[in-house]
Amino acid sequence: MGVIRLMAGKGMHMQSPLVDPERSWLPLEKRMAEEKEPRRRQLLEQVRNHMRAELREQLEPVLATLVDEPVFNFFGGGMDGTLNGREPVVAYYKQMFAAGRMGAEFRLDRIAVDESSVVTEGVMLSKYSGEDLIAAGVKDVGNEPVQKGKDYLGELPMIIMWPADKDGKLIGENIYMGGGFFDRLKRIN
After folding, report:
1. Which CATH fold topology does 21-187 show?
2. Which terminal residue of the chain, N or C, has fewer Cβ atoms less than 10 Å from its own Cβ?
3. What share of the chain is helix, strand, coil (3-state, %, to 5)?
4. pTM
């Protein structure tokens, strides 16, 4: 598989009432409260902890949720590739955090869990300024040119499989993206 490419741009995502990373794990907490099986509850909690630390850009808590040598697989969205081992995963997170990439919100529509994994399905919402889109090479949204001083909402459908080991540590992530980061944009002001 190819090299993982990240979108460039410090602070590319902007937080707003439309996009609030802190809402991302609320469906996981609701599902945890409903789950009767301890193992499944453990895995849901681990995914919640991982997601929360990731969106808050807290590297050590993210790594605490993972096995010693995690594997991240990316499919679609122009990011096809694999990160195999702790060192590449750490480098990936450091790059994302330094670029200010974590101002997104995951709106989870479905959560499935068994004794070996959790699967989340939903949409990643990101708010972008016109300036950031122009800098990323986006020229048009819909039938209109991207405008400086305007804001845009991006929606990226995602399915993530979170496999876990016997101790409940996440083995990694298998991330399936339903398009590119800028494929589903709309102007919001």
Report:
1. Nuclear Transport Factor 2; Chain: A, (3.10.450)
2. C
3. 30, 35, 35
4. 0.86
Q: For the segment 109-157, what is each residue's pLDDT rounded down to a tens digit?
A: 999 999 999 999 999 998 888 998 999 899 999 899 999 999 999 999 9
Q: Which residues, in sequence order, are bridge partners of residue 72?
A: 83, 173
H helices of 35-173, in order, are: 38-55, 59-64, 86-98, 130-135
Determine the Cα–Cα distance for residues 189 and 186; give it in Å rounded to an integer.
9
Structure tokens at 19: 């996009």
Question: Residue 16, SS3?
Answer: coil
| Cα separation, 55 vs 40, whole angstroms | 23
Domain ranges (residues) in the chain: 21-187
Reported as half-sphere exposure (CB side, CA atoms, 13 A), residue 156 has a value of 24
CB atoms within 10 A of CB 2: 10
Q: Which residues, 6+ apart, have CB-to-CB distance to 21 below 8 Å?
A: 15, 55, 56, 102, 103, 104, 105
